[in-house]
Write a structure and sequence with these properties.
The protein contains 26 helices and 16 strands. By secondary structure, it is an alpha/beta fold. An eight-stranded mixed β-sheet has the order 1-8-7-3-4-5-6-2. It has an eight-stranded parallel β-sheet with strand order 15-14-13-12-11-10-9-16. Helix 12 links the parallel strand 9 and strand 10. Helix 8 packs parallel to helix 9. The longest helix has 25 residues. The protein starts with a strand and ends with a helix. Bound molecules: phosphoenolpyruvate and magnesium ion (MG). The site of magnesium ion (MG) has 5 residues, from helix 20. It is found in: Cytoplasm. It catalyses: L-histidyl-[protein] + phosphoenolpyruvate = N(pros)-phospho-L-histidyl-[protein] + pyruvate. One of its GO terms (molecular function) is phosphoenolpyruvate-protein phosphotransferase activity. This is Phosphoenolpyruvate-protein phosphotransferase.
């Protein structure tokens, strides 16, 4: 039976493929295809892992003290029984032999199938055995991690992937850190039960240009392992087991968007100038040093936002030191070859926690309301040693090109002064250590209403500002950007948000200080003309969005549109603002 599941469209395009259900806690398990002749070796890995876990459980059983509860021994027996269940083992082997999944993936794929059967059981005792199976799988995965497999997790076999059915990932949730695994995975799209339009999971999906739908609430319950699904990333719909006619329509749309993409690609190195001759800078948002090359190839004239915190994720608790960070920043700066690279200091907290094992995170683990808690610059100022290391690393990279330093979530003068002091100290320490550095421009993210309202203060202390609309909307409207339950209220068209954005651009322009927008609004074609009309001349977005935004800019007369902004700002409701803008602007757009 075909069903449709609705969610929030967060990354455009169509993906068609077989569903791979992955429990949220296992999104980071390696997913790659093996070559058919490697199946035997992969099955061997499974066998070794099973023997290792069985020996571990037997040893545990022997060590159970006499006085311990008899239930403990019974539990270990259940785990051992599961481990030796031939039907289960055969099913896992099938994923390897017939579908060419690596061992870790095969185990988790079968776990999803069996977990579903447990969920449907009437008997409560049997239903609860699911937790036991999960523990056994956890042990198996740990045992497998001692032996990285035929190709190693880092080498997803894309060659093999092209021979297999395309795959899409369905999970209850995916953490931003786990999204980084996607960059080298075999999945062509994903759907999650939770999340909002500007949650970092959605942002990373857009940066990779793969179709995604979040906030579906129950996709992971409704879809079964291996179902054929279509992800419509434009409409925010997941179609499970589509009828042939629907499938054909989506295949057609997929081909159309590939053609459109190829057409836009030709624009990438064209100069970006409006019809009235205004030069516009299109910069890139990146997450990792290696993305810098992608930004350049997409035609970016610099990096407007390097989210440095992604370098601190997936590290198994060991954070990068000054030297490692320096090398990472230098890679990005050298790739840009003299074009500016705006490095934002670490913005952890909220929906971007550091690794669980990190001592820093453990210390602040029980934050009640993380979006309002120890996040971004607040976190850095509470960890002066780490902040110093990061500042020194960035300063050292500045001798290899043009570096700009960007501070997230500043709201207080006190914070500005502390940042200046930390920067001076970092320079002194580099002098003492004999390391060279250049002068870097210092900028502030305007993403808290307090900063937008006190912009003159910020303009006195900073060389440039960058509007982080994702958080500015979140904090102006008091909407958690990652919470799908209130996603309908998260609205960039809200007149209060537009007023703060317009006034920030106008005041910065009047003061002669560079201003850009680096939130998702900058890469959303619905806002391009409005931002131009507000006076914005610098946009920073995912590399994949640059060409389509450029196309809109090339067709816009910014001077003609400028007079329309006040109607929009005077609207009472987000819908009124949107309609007021679109109806007037359309008449003037070419
Ligand atoms: C923003 O808040 O708009 C922004 C660009 O920063 P981030 O999305 O990383 O919070
Ligand atoms: Mg932000």
């Amino acid at each position: 039976m075909s069903i449709q599941v609705f969610g929030l469209p967060v990354s455009r395009g169509v993906a068609i493929g077989r569903a791979v259900l992955v429990a949220s806690s296992r999104v980071d398990v390696a997913h790659y295809f093996i070559e058919p002749h490697q199946a035997e070796r992969e099955v061997d890995r499974l066998r070794c892992a099973r023997d290792e876990v069985a020996a571990e459980l037997m040893a545990l059983k022997q060590d159970v003290p006499e006085e311990a509860h008899a239930e403990l021994v019974a539990l270990l027996d259940v785990h051992l029984m599961m481990l030796h269940d031939e039907m289960l083992i055969e099913a896992v082997k099938q994923w390897v032999v017939e579908r060419h999944y690596n061992a870790e993936w095969a185990i988790t794929a079968q776990l999803e199938v069996v977990a579903r059967q447990f969920d449907e059981m009437e008997d409560e005792y049997l239903r609860e055995r699911k937790a036991d199976l999960e523990q056994v799988v956890e042990r198996m995965l740990r045992a497998l991690s001692n032996d990285v497999g035929v190709m190693g997790a880092a080498h997803a076999s894309l060659q093999a992937a092209s021979r297999e059915d395309p795959l899409v990932l369905i999970a209850s949730d995916i953490a931003p850190a786990d999204m980084m695994h996607f960059k080298r995975s075999v999945f062509t799209g994903f759907v999650t039960d939770v999340g909002g339009r500007t949650s970092h999971t959605a942002i990373v999906a857009r940066s990779m240009d793969i179709p995604a739908v979040v906030g579906t609430r129950e996709a992971s319950r409704l879809v079964r392992q291996d179902d054929w699904v279509v992800i419509d990333g434009d409409a925010g719909v997941l179609i499970v087991n589509p009828p042939p006619i629907v499938l054909e329509e989506y295949r057609f749309r997929q081909r159309q968007s590939e053609l459109e993409r190829a057409r836009l690609h030709r624009l990438r190195h064209a100069p970006c100038v409006t019809l009235d001759g205004q030069h516009i800078d299109l910069l890139a948002n990146i997450e990792l040093p290696s993305d810098a090359q992608v930004a350049l190839e997409a035609g970016a004239v610099g990096v407007g936002l390097f989210r440095s915190e992604f370098m601190f994720m997936n590290r198994g608790g060991r954070l990068p030191d000054e030297e490692e960070q320096f090398r990472g920043y230098r890679t990005a700066v050298q790739a840009l070859n003299g074009l500016p690279v705006t490095i934002r200091t670490i913005d952890v907290g909220a929906d971007k926690p550091l690794d669980r094992m990190s001592t820093h995170e453990l210390r602040h683990e029980h934050t009640l309301n993380p979006a309002l808690g120890l996040r971004a610059i607040r976190w850095s100022l509470s960890e002066p040693e780490m902040f110093g290391e990061q500042l020194r690393a960035i300063l050292r990279a500045s001798t290899h090109g043009k570096v700009r330093l960007l501070i997230p979530m500043v709201a207080h003068l006190r914070e500005i002064l502390q940042v200046r002091q930390a920067l001076e100290q970092a320079c002194r320490e580099l002098d003492e250590a004999g390391h060279a550095y250049a002068q870097v421009e210092l900028g502030a993210m305007i993403e808290v209403p307090a900063a937008a309202l006190m912009l003159p203060l910020f303009l006195r202390h900073f060389d440039f500002v960058s509007i982080g609309t994702n958080d500015l909307i979140q904090y102006t409207l008091a909407i958690d950007r990652a919470d799908e339950a209130v996603a309908h209220l998260y609205d960039a068209w809200h007149p209060a948000v537009l007023q703060l954005v317009a006034q920030t651009i106008a005041q910065a322009n009047a003061a002669g200080k560079p201003v850009s927008v680096c939130g998702e609004m900058a890469g959303d074609p619905a806002f391009t003309e409005l931002l131009l009309a507000m006076g914005l001349r610098s946009f920073s977005m995912h590399p994949a969005q640059i060409s389509s935004i450029k196309q809109r800019i090339l067709r816009t007369d910014a001077r003609q549109l400028a007079g329309l902004v006040e109607h929009v700002l005077a609207s009472d409701e987000p819908q009124d603002a949107c309609v007021a803008w679109l109806s007037r602007a359309r008449r003037l757009t070419h």
